[in-house]
């Protein structure tokens, strides 16, 4: 997961010469790009989001005041409603635009959602808000506002979103119908060990030594640093496509990342997680999760696929999906397997067979 921060820095540098995307403002926006699937935006204001159109602003209460987070509904199914938790922290919903190519045809209603601090939601300068427990309460407020509950509510979380989904389930799983944890281990210390002992060990020693030297100098913005990471890590373990073929949605998410959220929680280093999440570990608590749960891993992921398969055996009602050709964003580089397994799980839970 921490690998993604530097990807975003790299993409931000690539986009530095492009015209900036305007920051949306609170209040009604043009409805020319709205879709029939979003009909409830007026209750809390609307924002127009390039790529997916008009969405709904949901007011949330925090210890530092009241703010708005952006959501958008796609589809209409009273028994299947999937809320998507993006990674980061500080990324955006944009990495899930590919879901529109699969969920509607399967009759699955889903919700895009930018967490507080992310580009299309409010971005308060309040460092005390960047705590996992506070994000859990935000998700609960969003759930209530959207009218989701145990008869229809599926929670999908990828990377940091997977941490958030686990934490939400451990406190509020009675509100869930199904849980999906994608490309996320249950322990940051275990993740650090895998990154050090497997991913970094497989890297060219000269490249690794140069990366470590740049990190020791805290020279994270050095173009050489970004170039080494893209050529030797990102295209192998984040998204297994040549850099020039990376989807626009992923590039936009990278350009929109908010480092003021990411860095305090995750840390800036590619070679070792730090920050608030450094000691996060829920391996001992997985058996408390009783709601039907799908764990998605990928062979070339930044996360250990064996650990994620183990997680599926620790929860009370788990299933494991391996994307054999995928990496950390396996919805993009092992698309067919990813969506076939994800949709199959949701349909099985909905039918009562899981």
Written overview of the protein:
This protein is 36% helix and 16% strand. The protein contains 11 helices and 9 strands. The protein has helices at residues 3-14, 132-146, 160-172, 188-199, 205-216, 223-237, 248-255, 259-266, 305-314, 330-333, 335-351, and strands at 46-49, 53-62, 65-74, 81-85, 109-114, 153-158, 178-182, 293-298, 318-323. α3 links the parallel β6 (153-158) and β7 (178-182). α5 crosses α6. The longest helix is centred in the C-terminal third of the chain and has 17 residues, at 335-351. The two termini are 29 Å apart.
Radius of gyration: 19 Å
Question: How many DSSP-defined strands?
Answer: 9
Q: What sort of overall outline do the alpha carbons produce when their principal axes are compared?
A: globular
How many H/I helices? 11
CATH topology descriptor? Rossmann fold
Secondary-structure class: alpha/beta
Beta-strand residue percentage: 15-25%
Helix-strand sequence: HEEEEEHEHEHHHHHEHEHH
Instruction: Name the CATH class.
Output: Alpha Beta
Distance between the termini: 29 Å
Topology:
Layout: H1 3-14, E1 46-49, E2 53-62, E3 65-74, E4 81-85, E5 109-114, H2 132-146, E6 153-158, H3 160-172, E7 178-182, H4 188-199, H5 205-216, H6 223-237, H7 248-255, H8 259-266, E8 293-298, H9 305-314, E9 318-323, H10 330-333, H11 335-351
Parallel strand pairs: 4-5, 4-6, 6-7, 7-8, 8-9
Antiparallel strand pairs: 1-2, 2-3, 3-5
Helix pairs in contact: 1-6, 1-7, 2-3, 5-6
């Amino acid at each position: 997961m921490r690998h993604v921060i530097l990807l975003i820095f790299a993409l931000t540098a690539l986009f530095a010469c492009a015209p900036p995307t305007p920051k949306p403002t609170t209040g009604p926006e043009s409805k020319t790009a709205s879709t029939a699937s979003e009909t409830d935006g007026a209750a809390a204001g609307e924002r127009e989001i390039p790529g997916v159109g008009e969405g709904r602003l949901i007011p949330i209460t925090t210890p530092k005041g009241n703010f708005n987070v952006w959501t958008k509904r796609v589809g209409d199914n009273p028994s299947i409603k999937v809320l998507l938790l993006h990674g980061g922290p500080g990324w955006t919903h944009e990495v899930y635009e590919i879901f529109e190519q699969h969920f509607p045809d399967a009759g699955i209603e889903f919700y895009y959602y930018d967490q507080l601090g992310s580009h299309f939601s409010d971005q308060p300068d309040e460092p005390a808000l960047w705590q996992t427990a506070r994000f859990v309460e935000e998700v609960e407020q969003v759930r209530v506002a959207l009218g989701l509950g145990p008869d229809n509510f599926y929670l999908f979380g990828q990377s940091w979103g997977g941490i958030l989904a686990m934490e939400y389930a451990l406190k509020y799983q009675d509100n869930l119908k199904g849980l999906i944890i994608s490309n996320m281990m249950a322990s940051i210390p275990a993740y650090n060990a895998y990154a050090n002992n497997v991913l970094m060990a497989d890297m060219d020693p000269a490249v690794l030594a140069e990366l470590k030297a740049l990190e020791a100098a805290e020279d994270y913005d050095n173009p050489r640093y970004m170039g080494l990471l893209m050529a030797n890590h990102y295209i192998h373990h984040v998204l297994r496509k040549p850099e020039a073929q990376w989807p626009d949605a992923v590039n936009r998410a990278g350009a929109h990342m908010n480092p003021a959220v990411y860095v305090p929680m995750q840390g800036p280093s590619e070679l070792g997680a730090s920050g608030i999440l450094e000691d996060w570990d829920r391996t001992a608590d997985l058996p408390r999760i009783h709601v039907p749960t799908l764990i998605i891993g990928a062979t070339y992921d930044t996360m250990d696929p064996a650990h994620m398969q183990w997680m599926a055996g620790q929860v009370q009602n788990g299933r494991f999906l391996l994307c054999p050709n995928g990496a950390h964003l396996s919805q993009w580089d092992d698309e067919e397997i990813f969506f076939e397994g994800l949709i199959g799980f949701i349909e099985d839970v909905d039918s009562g067979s899981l």
